[in-house]
Amino acid sequence: MSLFLCLTASAEVVIRGVIAPETGNKIHLYTIDQGIDSLYTTVQASVGGKFTLRARLPYNGYYLLSTGGNVKHGIYLKDGQQLTVRYSNERLDLTAGVDGAEKHFAWWASKSATAAFHAYLYNLIPGGKSVKPYQFAQEMNLLKQSATALKRQLVGKGAVAELLRLKIDADQAFFKLAYWKNHVADIAEDFITDTDLQTYEQLFAHADLLRLPHASEMLVLYVDYRAEKQGIRREDYAKRMAFLSTQPLREAYLYQVACELSYYEKYETLRHAMGNVSLSAGLQQALKPIEARLAWSKLGQPAIDFKGVRPDGSTLSLSDLRGKVVVVDVWATWCAPCIRMIPYFKKLEKELESPDLTFLSVCVGVWVENERWEKLIKEHQLSGNLIFIDSWTKGFAVDYHVTGVPRFMIIDREGRMVSFAAPAPTHPELKEMILKTLQ
Fold first, then answer.
1. For 45, 118, 194, 406, which has the most beta carbons within 10 A of its beta carbon?
2. Where does it sit, as one GO cellular component term (predicted)?
3. What is the pTM assigned to this prediction?
4. What is the pLDDT of residues 371-399, one digit of tens each?
């Protein structure tokens, strides 16, 4: 029987609290169903950040509170509660109204807040900072001691206590996997041990995991870790999903992967990996807003024209290259990975030399960077179609949703989009895509 208690609420929950000024002016309550969160209700905070949220709950269990950004804090709720909370990006503190068994939920949330922040939350907050690996290890050792003591108290205390025991184990795995993901270059090879991995294999097969906050993120981290250790490509979703034992777990994983995508072509790759398996109604519904968000980048549509300045001061437009397959390299003068790609692009351009193909180098920045752009052109002996576009906030950067570089695109002879997010020239797939477009 599921640990999750799905009960009809008999009395509304009241949550009063204060939102830290930098986090926003609304508070949102999300339900969690099979690892997928859905907005349930929203209230406006006062000028001073005070709010009162009232809701009749569809179930007793874990929910998420958020001010609308990337940060969402888990909170255990049951019908009739009257809670007082203090909300910030860093943590959610329950300051009053917690009694009985729910005190354990609040205690664990407080104890685990620091490790949670240093493992992953810091990455979602402007200016957030983590700690060095040895400091994080110390935090996790202390947290493990607290976890062991609390789990001992919860033995034999019923289904609600078992749900918290599961969360305690899941949180420790989540924090460690998240820290690995964000600090992979800094940690020791045995940061996650074989014993840890054996524990994770059992933990991430547990059906009730999907009742917990951030379950889908946990599954992605777990799968990423297993896949990386076995050398499985990032977009080989079929092999990655094989690490998960049930369809609900796989659906939660797929949902989270879809949430993190930026381009429709990547979404299509994900959907293709799902094969002919029937998706639950809940997942189908959850994917609709993701599809709508990515619709701007559907392939086959006409490429939006853009224009930039060449080193000699003349201008060049994308439309000037109509009739040729165009490979676009979007970069910036301050971007070290972009500059590392230059030799690979030059090599690829030489290998694929054809009257039907051209490469277009688009440097995006502000006009004061123009001198450095020209210096880099000379330093790396760049030639061909080189343009500088002096805005991140209008025109090309906005039309093509350029929020990071390097970025690579392919446009066919008729000016239609073949790829908004092509592989880097270090990957053979880019050459394959270009040759296919030339056919």
1. 118
2. cell envelope
3. 0.91
4. 999 999 999 999 999 999 999 999 999 99
